[in-house]
Amino acid sequence: MPLDKTIKKVVVIGSGPIVIGQAAEFDYSGSQACKALKEEGVEIVLLNSNPATIQTDPTIADKIYIEPINLNSLEKIVQKEKPDGIIATMGGQTALNLAYEFGKKKLDKKYNCRFLGTGLKSIELAEDRGKFCEFLKKIGQPVLNSIAATTKEEAFEFAKDYPFPLILRPAYTLGGTGGGIAHNREEFEKLLELGFSLSPVHQVLIEENVLGWGEFEYEMVRDYADNCITICNMENIDPMGIHTGESVVVAPSQTLSDEEHQMLRTAAIKIIRGLNIVGGCNIQFAVNQETGQYVVVEVNPRLSRSSALASKATGYPIARVAAKLAIGYRLDEIKNMVTKTTPASFEPALDYVVVKIPRWPFDKMPYSNRTIGTQMKSTGEVMAIGRTFEQAFLKALSSLDQKLPNLSKEDIIFHMKTPTDYRFFAIFEGLKKGMSVKQITSITKINPWFIQKLKNIVKMEQTIKKFGLKKEVIKKAKKMGFSDSFIGKLCSKTEDEIRAFRKKYSILPTYKMVDTCAAEFQAKTPYYYSAYEEENESKPSSRKKIIVLGSGPIRIGQGIEFDYCCCHASYVLKEMGYESIIINNNPETISTDFDTSDKLYFEPLDFEHVMDVIELEKPEGVIVQFGGQTAINLAAELAKRGVKILGTSMESIDIAEDRELFRQFLNRLGLNQPKNATAISKEDALLKAEQIGYPIVVRPSYVIAGRGMQIVHDGQELEKYIDEAVEVSNNKPVLLDKYLEQALECEVDGISDGEEVWIANIMEHIERAGIHSGDASCVVPPVKLKKEVQEQIMQITTKMVKELKIIGAFNIQYIVKNDLVYVIELNPRGSRTMPFLSKALGIPIIKMATQLIVGKKLKELKLPEPTINYYAVKSVVFPFLKLPGADFILGPEMKSTGESMGIDKNFHIAYYKALLGANLKIPKKGTVAFSFKEGDKERCRPLAEKLLEMGFEIVATKGTAKYLEGLNIKVIKKISEGEPNIVSEIKNRKIDAVFNTPKKGGQPQTDGYAIRRAALEANILCITNFEAAEALVNAMYEIKDKELDVCDLKKYWANNKK
Amino acid sequence: MKKAVLVLADGTEIYAKGLGATTIKAGELVFNTSMTGYQEALTDPSYAGQILIMCYPLIGNYGINKKYVQSSRIWVEGFVVKWAEKKPSHYLSEENLHSYFLKNNVGCIYDLDTRKLVVKIREYGVMNAAYQIYEKEQKPDIQRLHKMVKELNYSNINFVPQVSTKKIQTIGQGNKKVVLLDYGAKEGIKTQLLKRKLKLVIMPYNSTAKEVLEQEPDGIVLSNGPGDPAILKKEIEQIKNLIGKVPIMGICLGNQLLGWAAGSKTYKLKFGHRGSNHPVLDKNLNRVLITTQNHGFALEQDSLPADWEVSHINLNDNTVEGIENKNKAAFAVQYHPEAQPGPHDSMYLFDKFVKML
Q1: Number of Cβ atoms within 10 Å of the Cβ of A509
Q2: How far is A216 from chain B (nearest CA, A)?
Q3: Cβ pair A353:B67 closer than 8 A
Q4: CA 20 to 30 Å from A461, out of A168, A535, A981, B255?
Q5: Count of structural domains within chain A
Q6: Same domain, yes or no: A784 and A704
Q7: A517, pLDDT greater than 90
Q8: Which residue of A has its CA nearest to B122?
Q9: pLDDT at A323 exceeding the cut of 90
Q10: Maximum CA pair distance of chain B?
């Protein structure tokens, strides 16, 4: 049975918005799988609420359902489409949970639509902790003593027999959400409560600890004929106790002997056979590296973040293969796409070392706790490849695009011991201060082999400091992965001087291929990494070529949207006959997939590594517009060396990005801007702020996602904050903007060829101005903006874009107050909203922009009028729950990790769907708590009336209740007024939704903070913005008892064209 | 710190760092893609006469111990790695590569672009090479190295006598008795046989069929071993007289010898199969096994007589990986079911053999 002919149409479930624990890796695996199925003539029906995904592109999916990923949507889709199968293993835990729910209700039987690949029984066996442990025991695999508790009593009973610390993991949650290590009864009880509330099945697994043991992962693939292979094994440098998503990971394993490796491999095969996996699977083991003993920790019966990493680390496209297996192929019937001659039924051999380092969002969450543990907090990751461990590790550090901390002596021990995201920097510092490998191992439990390698790096630093620029020293340093800028710092030279020195002595990088087979066979897929070796394998072709710079790790403000843009640019370049070359370092992405570009360099996105590739490839030019701020920030450096930046000129980029230049530009054009000034020092800022008048928005230049932006209300606040702003801005001017209160914000995306301008549409924010555009919900077409104002915005846009001679994509943000249009900022690049807008309109904006960038004219593209006769709403998801301590509060600095889209003929329904798509739990009945700030209290009455009419009960804090007099509501106490109060009631599950708008926010000691955290942890709806609450209540009112329907995007688009 | 130079048959001279014995040696240059199991490889007698390149760049991470050896000493003629770890980390580790090579009087060349070498071998095939490990202040004898490379004729050297046992040894307890004809048997093979409660009689490579049958064995295992099977004419003659008398299992060289004895021939592969990731299809089971391989020769499929069938094939290049007699109890595989290093997918072959006894 090479291919199951009965499978003609399948539903693929995506993973929804990017959240901590579920990032771009599922679009990567999902898209790869869809392509593999399409090759076989299978029709693809896609369900995902995330518009910024390649899998929801019409080139991949035949039917596109941008709908909330829930049972209702799936059932409706299955009813409509009558598919032969469902693939649920490509969309992370989200898809798996939905499939599980679907199967539990026996809907797969009802609609005669089976799960392809790994079946439901296997999923249940792997996911239900209790059953899983039993299963392992049955097949003779060692497992930790544990209990799947559903009551506190059970849990405490277990804690009697096993000593603290104990590990708690809520069942069926993502990225270990709500899990942790309890060192004592208090912590135990706290984690239990949290775990029960977060687990959809009210179950918490409690297990004895093997803290400090080595953690190893095996990426396995199995076919229906029982052929099993290991794609890759990976070693977590961080020992047990730290989530694998939070660990620095190396592939292949470094400290396991062959005997141990085979022991785990054999165990892994037993497990996937026992589970009857068909497709990919990730198995985690803990190994006591003092005795060789092991236990099975966890199994993910699906593709995962680790499988994405393993795919990129080995060159083996796991998702592609898993998809083929799901429709009935055997492993030996599938070709290895890299060699094109050998079969996929082999195990990749590496001749390099891969290091992955997570990227954390702590820089954007001032009050969150930097501790890392069993719960994921990182938003993304970088990967680097080298011929030595040191090289791979240092390249990964360069890829992080992050400032290194200054650590005091006490800090060093603290960060190692706790541990925090700074632990590796602390280890470096410790080694520099003379700590021994042994000492550090005893504190961190990290295998001494790794510490020794870090020590080699520290020793090299000292050698460079001592000998300075000596050919042999620098050669050795480069082999170890020292960047030019790092070497420069060590011997007080500039990066340029080091580069010149290297060239003088021909110390140049070579590029080696990632080929799945350690050079045993000739590979056809051009995937390279740099190494300071003898032979260069990357031979530039004589074709016309263009380099697209990627955006690096997923972080707040620079998410999957930019990778989406890079992919589209690359696709179009290929279509237009260019050789497209991508440089990027994010293993989760599609831009780093083997067939997205003609040539891929897996390298840090810093000047040195990018310039090295440019010098080798000699491209026509470089596209920086789609790699977010990371790529834009490289543009100036590259341009200075004569590299052609394609599209918008460097001068125009400067005018748009530099606050002072932009201010002058607007003045010249006679355009409005909120009253503002630029400042470069504290004194300057305070003086100018007085002149403008508070409140003021402070904005640094050249930053990602409003990094360091804040609204300040008086001189005191400004004083406190200005130093940080200046620092973030890298001593470029800081802009002080008059904050326009109660104003409407909107933004425009478009493209231009330098002469003509095409505006894709105006997106109107739901929340009032003052919230970062990345955090605001928005709707297209506008709902509140008057027609005349819209016209005005179009005119201003055209004027500015023409004046700047923008070539390619742009995004402009406006504030409208009293029908007056103020310009906030202009981004001369691909924007976060372009994928959303492309999906909403059915027009691939980035592909069009790319064609303009390489010289086509707008006229030639024959773009239609961007009309839209329905509503598309973008909503966002926030990571607050996963970052203990962080306040749920929105401002000019972006905090959200991902976005969803809702689409419908009715605005309210579109909004409602977008919220569901963003994983919000919207109650249909129950109690809503009101606690509004001044300015919101006065206008909350209509909300209360509507909710009451729908049958909700309302409780309100005293201040708010004053404005609800006469309505049938209850007053609830504040914390200081004793119990029961709003927080205790939330904890006791008496409240189903909270509307709380914070005064200034960001201060952990306030009542509001406690209310919001309590709501988060109780896993109930929490809205912290008045307009959002208003829109939500309107939407709820509109829906009431209506059932939500689903619709293929292509139908909406077809409607537009009429 | 020692230095090293490696001279290849195509005239290339590569200078790098050296460790282990200050020595000058020649051998056939081959590569292995296994990422773990360097100690098992070093001590595998099948590598006699060969200089081994490890494709994986970091070798020696978990040190050297007594448990993983496949024989009493290092058998490779030389070792080429990107990096040889000086500070291993493992609870079983007793020493590092540096002291191990010194003790065994073998040299290791490191800190060079090993991938470049591998690509070269892939393109041009295995080739002769010679190396010298010398002290920093010394000068290498380049002329001599070139001469050694030219004079070496790997296929004409019979390495088996030096790796085989000199006298008959009996180990293990069991109701069944198996003769292991030792052409350079790895410890792993013995371990697997002993695990199955067999009495094992290990006999020298040049034992005659008569001598073997005098032991009244219930079965015979033809072991792995080094070199070109074509020159082992006498051994092949003896095996001819054993087929059909008692059940036979062949491994690696044992497979080639059984093939020759059956009437087939071997030929030299361009760059051999050495690694732990080779997909092999067991045609009877219709299942893919990931296997450990270490061979430079393969059996011809076409010259295999009609009463034999190809039971296993390599899915990378469709070469013969196993043969089986249709009527008599005799089978063999070209790869290493005993693993060490490598996957345990093929252990069932030992069970199959035991069932035949």
Answers
A1: 21
A2: 15
A3: no
A4: A535
A5: 6
A6: no
A7: yes
A8: A520
A9: yes
A10: 65
pLDDT at residue A676 is higher than 80 = yes
- Catalytic residue at B336? yes
pTM: 0.96
**Residue of B63, B76, B61, B58 whose CA lies nearest to B131:** B76
Asked if residue B185 and residue B109 are part of one domain, the reply reads: no
Is the pLDDT at A1032 greater than 70? The verdict is: yes
Q: Is B252 a catalytic residue?
A: yes
Those residues with Cβ within 8 angstroms of residue B5's Cβ, 6 or more apart along the chain or in another chain: B13, B14, B15, B16, B131, B132, B134, B140, B142, B145
**Together in a domain, B176 and B74:** no
Within 10 angstroms of residue B251's Cβ, the number of other Cβ atoms is 29
Contact A259 B68 (CB under 8 A): yes
- CA–CA separation, A354 and A338 (whole Å): 18
Query: Does A61 share its domain with A167?
Result: no
Where in the sequence is the domain holding B99, given as residue range(s)?
2-156
**Both tokens assigned to A1026:** 């008045």
Q: Which amino acid is at B221?
A: V
Tell me how far apart the alpha carbons of residues A578 and A591 are, in angstroms, rounded to a whole number. 16
Q: pLDDT digit string (tens) for A689-699? A: 999 999 998 87
**pLDDT > 50? residue A509:** yes
Quote the domain boundaries for residue A697.
675-738
What ipTM was estimated for this complex?
Answer: 0.98
* Secondary structure (3-state) at A272: helix
Phi, psi of A721, deg, nearest 5: -105, -25
Cis peptide bond N-terminal to A301, omega within 30:
no
Q: State the nearest Cα–Cα gap between A534 and chain B, in angstroms.
A: 6
Cross-chain residue pair A349–B33, CB shorter than 8 Å: yes
- 8 Å CB contact of B342 and A229: no
- Give a yes or no: residue A926 inside a domain: yes
pLDDT band at A729 (very low <50, low <70, confident <90, very high): low
In a shared domain, residues B132 and B165 = no
At B20, which amino acid appears? G
**Per-residue pLDDT tens for B115-136?**
999 999 999 999 999 999 999 9
A978 within some domain: yes
Q: Report which residue type is found at B301.
A: Q
Q: How confident is the model at residue A890 (pLDDT cuts 50, 70, 90)?
A: confident
Average pLDDT, chain A: 93
Residues of A in contact with B83 (CB under 8 A): 388
Give the list of residues 6+ apart from residue A85 with CB closer than 8 angstroms, or none.
A7, A9, A10, A11, A113, A114, A115, A116, A326, A327
Nearest chain A residue to B67 by CA distance is A259
Selected for mutation to probe chain A from B13, B33, B86, B313 (highest A CB count within 10 Å) is: B33
Give the closest-approach CA distance of B52 to chain A in angstroms.
Answer: 14
Other beta carbons within 10 angstroms of residue B327's beta carbon come to 8
What's the Rg (C-alpha) of chain A? 28
Of B156, B189, B220, the one marking the end of a domain is B156
d(CA A452, CA A576): 50
Is the Cβ–Cβ distance between A172 and A127 less than 8 Å? yes
Provide the domain count of chain B: 2
Residue that the structure tokens 């996963």 belong to: A882
DSSP string for B74-108: --BSEEEESEE-SS---TT--B-HHHHHHHHT-EE
Q: Are residues B95 and B227 in the same domain?
A: no
Examine the domain organization and report whether B55 and B166 are in the same domain.
no
Determine the Cα–Cα distance for residues A219 and A272; give it in Å rounded to an integer: 11
Tokens standing for residue B142 = 């380049």
Task: Please provide residue B113's backbone torsions phi and psi, each rounded to the nearest 5 degrees.
Answer: -80, 85
A893 and A1022 housed in the same domain: yes
pLDDT score recorded for residue A528: 98
B107 forms beta bridges with: B20, B78
* Residue A32 located in a structural domain: yes
* A852 lies in the same domain as A750: yes
Amino acid letter, B70: Q
Minimal-distance CA residue of chain A relative to B81: A351
* Residue located via tokens 């927080």: A983
From the candidates B252, B273, B295, B324, give the one annotated as an active-site residue: B252
